[in-house]
Design a protein that fits this description.
- There is one protein chain.
- By secondary structure, the protein is of the alpha+beta class.
- Helices cover 19% and strands 35% of the residues.
- The protein has helices spanning 21-32, 83-95, 148-152, 182-191, 246-258, and strands at residues 10-17, 35-39, 43-47, 53-58, 72-79, 101-104, 108-114, 120-126, 134-135, 138-139, 170-177, 195-200, 204-208, 216-219, 235-242, 264-266, 269-273, 279-283.
- The strands form three sheets. An eight-stranded mixed sheet has the order 2-3-4-1-15-18-17-16. Strands 6-7-8-5-11-14-13-12 form an eight-stranded mixed sheet. It has a two-stranded antiparallel ribbon with strand order 9-10.
- The longest helix is centred in the N-terminal third of the chain and has 13 residues, at 83-95.
- The radius of gyration is 18 Å and the shape is globular.
- It comes from Paenibacillus lentus.
- One of its GO terms (molecular function) is lactoylglutathione lyase activity.
């Protein structure tokens, strides 16, 4: 988990808008295994360790359903501490008859599903960084079938009702639909300070800090020029990027301003918006 601590910037928290808070809470507690840290009539903050908020959900008063073919969330990704944890959640999902996608990305093994509003979720475990293959500054990633037989070999099951996310679970990365890649790359690389570590043809790129395989994925799979969704639609509200120091956060803000991007204060955070309308809060 060294890529999700204070030495490099990383994605800390994802904030979603949902159509029905009660329905979403049931899903995130019973299926994903979150615990509720704080809750109001229209909002809830969810945690794995009982202290750190990884996901917040809220039900706007005038909310409408998730809008397709727009910019916004492709998926957020929860990083589990061990391969055994990944095997246990596979058994948990199987007992609940949850439909899953799955891939071996060489750097990681991943499961995919969606919440009741269609928000994409990845749950994964990393291989050791020593097993990642780098060609100069590009990390090798692929989309191979996940070997479930090997993953589950020798693993004792857990009862579905007993599953909870391990306390060391973190927000591993976020993957976004964007309208185009050129200005987006300038924003995240020259502005926020990340490095491009993989180009997936002309339609996607992956960026990170500190030689992680990726903290943020960016794609145009909803179409070049895809519009941003209405403000009141279910989906991504914002996400946070946590910098290792106040100086590093201030430098990112200065870099953004130097390329013509607005940065404003928002309840102790610095708020900005990427070229596709995705809202980001910069923390230190």
């Amino acid at each position: 988990m060294k890529f999700h601590r204070g030495s490099v910037p990383y994605v800390g928290q994802v904030n979603l808008k949902v159509e029905n808070l009660e329905r979403s809470l049931a899903f995130y507690k019973e299926v994903i295994g979150f615990k509720v840290l704080r809750q109001t009539e229209k909002t809830a903050q969810l945690t794995a360790d009982g202290r750190t908020v990884l996901l917040s959900i809220e039900q706007p008063n005038d909310v409408i359903s998730h809008q397709g073919r727009t910019t916004g969330l492709y998926h957020f990704a929860l990083l589990l501490p061990t391969r055994t944890d990944l095997a246990h959640i596979v058994l948990h999902f199987s007992r609940l008859q949850i439909e899953l996608g799955a891939s071996d990305h060489l750097v990681s093994e991943a499961l995919y599903l969606s919440d009741p509003d269609g928000n994409g979720i990845e749950i994964y475990r990393d291989r050791a960084p020593s097993e990642w293959n780098w060609n100069n500054d590009q990390v090798e990633m692929t989309v191979d079938p996940l070997n479930f037989q090997d993953l589950l070999h020798g693993v004792n099951g857990v009862e579905p009702r007993s599953w909870q996310l391990p306390a060391d679970t973190v927000m591993g990365h976020i993957h976004l639909h964007v309208a185009e890649l050129s200005k987006t790359e300038e924003f995240y690389v020259h502005g926020l300070g990340f490095d491009v570590v993989n180009r997936y043809g002309p339609q996607a790129l992956f960026i990170s800090a500190g030689k992680y395989h990726h903290h943020i994925g960016l794609n145009t799979w909803n179409g070049v020029g895809a519009p941003k969704p209405p403000d009141n639609s279910a989906g991504l509200k914002s996400f946070t990027i946590v910098y290792p120091s106040e100086a590093a956060r201030e430098q990112a803000a200065l870099n953004l301003k130097s390329i013509g991007v607005s940065v404003v204060e928002d309840n102790g955070a610095l708020a900005t918006v990427d070229p596709s309308g995705n809202h980001i809060l910069l923390l230190a």
